[in-house]
Every structure is written in C-alpha cells, then in structure tokens.
Amino acid sequence: MRFLTVAVKRLSWLILGALLLGQPSSFEYTTLLKVPDFSFFPGVMTGLDVLEQMDFAPLRGKRIAVCCNATSIDRNGRHLLNLLAELDSTSIPIIFIPEYGLSTSLDERMVLMGDEDHDPVTGARLVDLFGSYVKPPEWSLRMVDMVLIDLQDTGLRYNTYITTITKIMEVAGPMSIPVMVLDRPNPLRGDVLDGPVIRPQFQSFQGYHLTPIRHGLTLGEETALINEMGWVKDLTRVELTIVPMANWKRSMWFEDTGLPWIAPLPMLETVDELLSYAGLALAEAANVNVGIGTRKPYLRIGAPWLNGPELKDQLIRLSLPGVEFRSIQYVPRRAENSSRVPQYDGKVCGGIQLRITDRNAFEAVRTGTSILTLLYQLNPQEFRWLEGDYAEKLFGTSLLRILIAQKKDPDYLWPQWQSDLVKFDRFRKRFFLYE
What we know:
The chain is an alpha/beta fold. It folds into two domains: about 5-265, Uncharacterised protein PF07075, DUF1343 (Rossmann fold, 3-Layer(aba) Sandwich), CATH 3.40.50; about 270-420, Aspartate Aminotransferase, domain 1 (Alpha-Beta Complex). It has helices spanning about 5-10, 15-20, 45-55, 80-85, 140, 160-170, 220-230, 270-280, 310-320, 365-380, 390-395, 400-405, 420-430; strands at about 30, 65-70, 90-95, 125-130, 145-150, 180, 240-245, 300-305, 325-330, 350-355. The strands form two sheets. The chain has a seven-stranded parallel β-sheet with strand order 1-7-6-5-2-3-4, with helices on both faces. Strands 8-10-9 form a three-stranded antiparallel β-sheet. Strand 5 (about 145-150), helix 6 and strand 6 form a beta-alpha-beta unit. The two termini are about 30 Å apart. The model is unreliable at about 1-25 and about 105-115 (pLDDT under 50).
C-alpha cells in the first residue's frame, strides 16, 4: 500500500506544472525541483519518495540511464528499478553500477556485473562503472535522454559513489545529457564535520573532492556543489536537477528519519559501524586488521603482534569522548562468497573493541589517529605502513604519517585540522538545501 492517499499522489496538473518548472535558487547551473509542502507527513521523504508522489511525471516518455544499487528503495522497501519498470511510457536501456554492485535482498535481482549482462527485471544493459569502465562510455549515453541517480551515500569522503557520479557528469555534460539526482539523508547528520580537507596532491578515486573526511552534506548538496564550482574535469557543467527530500533536518541521525536502513557499504550493517569507519578506516593503510572478517567491522582493531590490554590501558588514559574500549582476541575469517581476504585471515589477533557510548560526543577521526599513534609507539618494530601513499590518500594530508614518525603525543594531531573544518563549514553553507 502506498504511504499517501491516491488523492495526494495524483496532483493537479496546475501544481504539477509548477513542479516541472523548477524552483528559483541562487544556483547558476543546477535546478532544485520545486515540490509540495509535505510537512504534514510524519517522517522523512527521500527524493525517490517525492518523485513517486509526482507519479514520476518528469521521467515519463523518456529513455533513462539509471545509476543505483541496493539502497535505492522507497519508504515501503520497493526498489527504484521495480517502480520504473511499471511505467509504460518510460524505458531503461542502461543501468550504471557503482562500487559493490547492484545486488539487493529485496527482490529477485541477482548480482550481475560486467558490461555484457542485463538486468532481469528491466532488460537494461548493465554497465559497471567500477570495473569494466571508470566513466560511462559515450555509446551508453547516446541511448538515453537523461541520467537518473539514486544512491544512499555514507557522508564520508572515502566512499567512491560521489566519484562515480562525477565521472557520469564528466561525460554527460559535453553530450548535453541532463542528470537528475534523487536526494537521501546523510546518515551521520548534516551538522557535524570531522577530519582534514584532502590536499590536491593526495586526491584519488577514493578521495576525489576537496572535502573533510566527514563532510556533513547530502548527496544532492554535494553534487550541486561540484556542479556549481566546476569540480568536474575541465570545468564541465551539466544540466543538473536535484529532487530534494522533505522533512529532513541536519541534526538527524539516520534512525531519526523513519526510513528503512539498507547498508550503504556491504560490510557496514549499522550506523555505529559507519561512524567508527570514519576513523578506523585510516588503519587500513597499516599492517593491522580493522575487524574485516568478523561481525564487528571497524569496531575492532588487532594483529598477531598486538598487546590488547596494553593498548586499551593507554587509550583509557586519553579519555576520548563517547567511546569505551575493551581488550579482545579474535580470528578474522574470509566470508563465504567474498572476494576480499581480510588482513591476518585465520590468525589469532590480539586487539581492542570499541563501543560507542555517545554518538554525539564521539570523535571518530581523533579516535582513529590516536589508536594509530599508540600502535606505533607501543610496537615500533612491528608496526608499518603499507607501501605507497595510501595513508595520505585516506587521511588527506601527510601530517598523520609525519607526526606519528616524530613520536608526537596522540592529542597533538587532532587540533591540526580544526581550521580546515571552520573554513569548509563556512564554504559549504551556500549549497545547503535543508536547515
């Protein structure tokens, strides 16, 4: 059953006409679609929910390339592709697949990757934008009138979804193919920032834009920022439309939205794991296990050479806010049907486990850098960084590796990125779509 009445859903043509005209804004290259007032509705409506209430009017009669994954569902758990398949006048020749694939447990759709496969529901050709291609091949966009994007972002710079979207914009702009983004909540709130802004020399596919680790933007806001600022290659702009959410507030954690939770990354099943990932992902640049291969990814860290009780005692002395630590031993194991082999697969690791006691107080990046600093100081012979500059690409600057090598106190590092946060917070506010 749809969550609003048919009478509300089937808007009058007068209102619908206003919807399609777009909402005036200060944006030069981006249109914010004007939507009715849904403040009477209890809970948040995503861009997909809003579009559904419009009977998908902006999509009718068009050939659409869709970029989506398992998170692209409405409030009732129905997947975007299944909803679009019901529209007689709309066709989907192409589906763009970001990192981690298209799989979902909410329908019969299987994990299909590679540019020769087709989606069993829509018949669309699947184009893998994290393996077979990095950006859409031009032939794929010649088959469509527009690109529709609906992904649940993580709220963290590490995630590659925003990079894939940027690559779509890079090709769509010169070909005059419009792009529409259906907005979704930032699951980690929109009023908290954390970590340094990445420096240009360390940009990568995993850290593509000049933002802090935790940027406090929704996908729609970040996409508008990228389009307006010309952050696409060669200052490319695209005819971009954002379908905003209704009733979302920046102070909301994901549980406050009333929306069904689908993990934006396959190994992160809870919001606490996602929040801790903001800090402990930095340890993936070192020779330690971060809980991959266990039921507590990014809430554990360990290695065969690590003394868990000693590390726990040192962390307790730091009085880090919003988190508790306990020493553990565990054995990471490769998950069945997983291609990812965890660090120290099948070996007994000493380590610690985190328990977030207060999300609002917890400082993930400070906690992660403190753990890495202590790991080096307690185990200088065993601890090592992985080859290359992966630590810099994750952290965003060279300070992490330099200050750890200089044996600085764990509390010395985190004040260094506070000025970054003040400047970025001031800069990002011009792209806010929500209070």
